[in-house]
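Protein modeling request. Please complete all fields; requests missing the sequence field cannot be processed.
Requester role: graduate student
Desired output: 3D structure, C-alpha cell encoding
Chains: 1
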Amino acid sequence: MDHRTSTRDVVHALRDVDFPAGKEELVQAAKRSGAQQDIVEALRGLPAERYANREEVARSVRPESGSDPGTGPAQRAEQARAGGRPGQSQHLRDVPKPPVEDRLDR
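Delivered output (106 residues):
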C-alpha cells in the first residue's frame, strides 16, 4: 500500500491525547490508536519536547517528501536560509514574499 503521511493523518492519530504531551506519549498514543507505521515514524522524528496541543505537533512534524505540493525547491532553499523554530519542519517556516510579489501587493 502506497500511503503518504500528511499532517492531517498525524493529527487524526492523536485525537485521544491529553495535552500537554511529550514526544514519547505521542508515539504511544498513535500506536494505541492503530496508526499506520509511517505516522508513528513521523512522530518519532519530532524534537524531544512537550507539545501544548495538536497544532504544535502539526507545525513540527515532517510529512513525507512530495506531500507538500505548494513548496518548490526555491522556497525550500529560502526556508533553509531563513531558519525558524529549532526542530520545526522547514515546510512550515515563514517564508518572505519574493520582491516582485511584495511590490504587486502595494
